[in-house]
Amino acid sequence: MDDALKAHVRTHPDAAQQLAERVAERMFANDRASRALGMRIERVAPGRAELTMTVTDSMLNGHGICHGGYIFLLADSTFAFACNSYNRNTVAQGCSIDYLAPARKGDVLRARGAERSRTGRTGVYDIEVTNGTSTVALFRGKSYRIDGTIVDELDEA
Amino acid sequence: MDDALKAHVRTHPDAAQQLAERVAERMFANDRASRALGMRIERVAPGRAELTMTVTDSMLNGHGICHGGYIFLLADSTFAFACNSYNRNTVAQGCSIDYLAPARKGDVLRARGAERSRTGRTGVYDIEVTNGTSTVALFRGKSYRIDGTIVDELDEA
Amino acid sequence: MDDALKAHVRTHPDAAQQLAERVAERMFANDRASRALGMRIERVAPGRAELTMTVTDSMLNGHGICHGGYIFLLADSTFAFACNSYNRNTVAQGCSIDYLAPARKGDVLRARGAERSRTGRTGVYDIEVTNGTSTVALFRGKSYRIDGTIVDELDEA
Amino acid sequence: MDDALKAHVRTHPDAAQQLAERVAERMFANDRASRALGMRIERVAPGRAELTMTVTDSMLNGHGICHGGYIFLLADSTFAFACNSYNRNTVAQGCSIDYLAPARKGDVLRARGAERSRTGRTGVYDIEVTNGTSTVALFRGKSYRIDGTIVDELDEA
User: Fold this and answer.
1) Among A95, A98, A119, A131, which would you mutate to test the C interface (most chain C Cβ atoms within 10 Å of its Cβ)?
2) Distance between CA B82 and CA B125 in Å, rounded?
3) How far is B106 from B104, CA to CA, in rounded Å?
4) Is the confidence at residue B16, as pLDDT, over 70?
5) Which residues of D touch A142 (CB under 8 A)?
6) How many CA atoms lie within 13 A of A18 on its CB side?
7) What is the extent of the structural domain holding B143?
8) Which residues from B are below 8 Å from A when comparing CB atoms?
9) Residue B155 within a domain
10) What is the mean pLDDT of residues A1-20?
11) CA distance D100 to B77
């Protein structure tokens, strides 16, 4: 955040939260991929996000369980909402995922993501995916801030 | 491979290739996720696979470029076809991806995967995703062999 | 843990802690690599460990800062003490590290590790390395349990 | 490389190789960590490096095999020589390693590293560590180019 925004956030305790929500709303409206999969944003906050997605028939692989790529997709979208929450355009550099338990048709997957670090242009975010009974996967994303914003900050006044 | 299968493959040079192709055919028939995304298997061989997928509207994220999760999905399916090619049920333990260039609507993504190691039950596979002009992503998958086979080897005779 | 040990731990609330400490003591006595680098075990508990190490002259790279490999070594040893704390021989399958800030000569590096998951033979552990003012690195280790124990459990009686 | 250097390299086919060698010589002279471990640079080239290191007593862990951290250190140094070979100061952002086979006392470990991609300020390098009979580990490093050079390019004339 630039200094003016930092000062604004300090003196308006809810400003950072409101900005995170406005950013998420705009991003989600434009994000056909996440909407087409039935993802829902449950919560966002500065540096954090929580999304849910239900495993459908078309997400099953040859073993009849959820294709790992769809678990990754949910975690990756959660990561994107968390790392863009400061209204600075931020992209994924790289991600890793460890699979702990299978997800099955009808499971409501819940991904919770939080920032672990943010220094300079880069950040690290940890996302945990659960299915109600087990942790399904642990995901770590590395972000890189590029130029531009998601929403116009003048709107904020 | 058990000793009998190894011996069979040694004395029948095409047996391993034919087995890889039968496995891929069976897996793909059951893999709704990969088929629903329009993936095509271009080539399989023992420890190797090559798949293509065209970036469609519903794969675009809020920046108007292909959601990284779909690039991951293509790489992950390629990994699955490569690591199951010996007809031993094999699952992903974990994967990592590094994004090098964006993919855009209409791009035909091509993922080529090859085995880097296989020792005991675990393997490491590297998959490169290109879009015709650039390398879009590098993916590394770690596999774990479980019990069971994909096709019945008695069919092979 | 086998059932007898689980029952023992349930009825003797300190048993798991005492076992973790005995394992750490034995491992450290045999671990020339960690001792030669001046590492100290500050704390162990079931699934957790905390180690410190001071950055010396011989750990500096060509830029005059601590070679990333030594930061990794401290995190990796912390991971080993955490994942072996149940007295089941456990080895590293793979690890990843993200560097957040440089470490300098004289810095006392502190690595704190905790288990994120343990299912079947595999586990995931997160280790954070700090130097008193900053987080220096985030490390994630994947463990695999093999046969055997570190200390004899009959000693415990 | 800037345009003048690119042109120079194009018209002087050996210039890039000579530059890589001069950079490696300078880096190694200043790299106490790598020298203290007995590492040797066997070969460097633009984007590539090959180093060896013998496993000594003080690298053994509690299981009597080489501590994974020392295998990482060798791979990490190889990565550093490869990614700095263009004479642009370049640091590690993050690394991952997968262990395939143990290394033992007296083993001569050989790490061969090559660039997989370089776009903008970031690069991806793959390093394979062998011990003469087996692949011991696969390492992937992500680099980030910062300001400055290792040697003065005017020296080159």
Assistant:
1) A98
2) 8
3) 6
4) yes
5) 93-94
6) 11
7) 3-149
8) 26-34, 36, 57-64, 67-70, 72-74, 76-77, 80, 89, 91-99, 150
9) no
10) 72
11) 23
Look up the CATH number of the domain holding residue D47: 3.10.129.10
Could you report the predicted ipTM of this complex, rounded to two decimals? 0.89
Q: Which residues of A touch D91 (CB under 8 A)?
A: none
Pick from C100, C116, C119: CB nearest A119: C100
- Strand pairing category for B40-45 and A108-119: unpaired
Position B17 scores a pLDDT of 95
| Selection from B61, B53, B67 nearest residue B127 by Cα | B53
- Distance (Å, whole) CA B43 – CA C60: 48
What local confidence, expressed as pLDDT, does residue A157 receive? 43
pTM, two decimals, is: 0.90
pLDDT digit of tens for each residue in chain C (157 aa)? 556 656 655 666 689 999 999 999 999 999 998 999 999 999 999 999 999 999 999 999 888 899 999 999 999 999 999 999 999 999 999 999 999 999 999 999 999 999 999 988 999 999 999 999 999 999 999 999 999 999 987 554 4
Single-letter residue type at C80: A
What is the share, in percent, of chain A residues with pLDDT greater than 90?
82
**Which residues neighbour B87 within 8 Å (Cβ) at sequence distance 6 or greater?**
B19, B22, B23, B149, B150, B151, B153
Residues of A in contact with D96 (CB under 8 A): 96
What pLDDT is stored for residue B157 in this prediction? Answer: 43
Instruction: Give the angle subtended at the CA of B68 by the CAs of B65 and B73, to the nearest 5°.
Output: 125
Assess if residue B123 is contained within a domain: yes
Q: Using alpha carbons, list the distances in angstroms from residue B14 to B5, B155, B156, D69.
A: 13, 15, 12, 42
Task: Retrieve residue B31's tokens.
Answer: 């893999």
Residue in D28, D61, D96 closest to C33 by CB: D61
Total domain count, chain D: 1
Instruction: Kindly give the pairing relationship between strand D40-45 and strand C48-54.
Output: unpaired
Name the band, by pLDDT with cuts 50, 70 and 90, for residue A68: very high
Residue B129 φ then ψ, to 5°: -110, 125
| Minimum Cα–Cα distance from C122: chain B residue | B93
Dihedral, CA atoms, C78, C79, C83, C87, nearest 10 degrees? -40
Q: Give the percent of chain B with pLDDT over 70.
A: 89
Q: CB C72 to CB D72 under 8 A?
A: yes
What's the rounded Cα separation, in Å, for the pair A138 and A126? 7
pLDDT of residue D63: 80
Distance CA D70, CA C72 (A): 9
pLDDT for the residue numbered B6: 61
Q: Which chains touch A (3 or more CB pairs under 8 A)?
A: B, C, D
Token look-up 């490169």 returns B128
B154 lies in some domain: no
**Residue C80 confidence (pLDDT):** 97
Q: Could you tell me which residues come within 8 angstroms of residue A116 by beta carbon, excluding any fewer than 6 positions away?
A: A123, A124, A125, A126, C138
* D63 assigned to some structural domain: yes
Check whether B156 has a pLDDT greater than 80.
Answer: no
Taking 90 as the threshold, does the pLDDT of residue B9 lie above it?
A: no
Residue B75 has which token pair?
């790489």
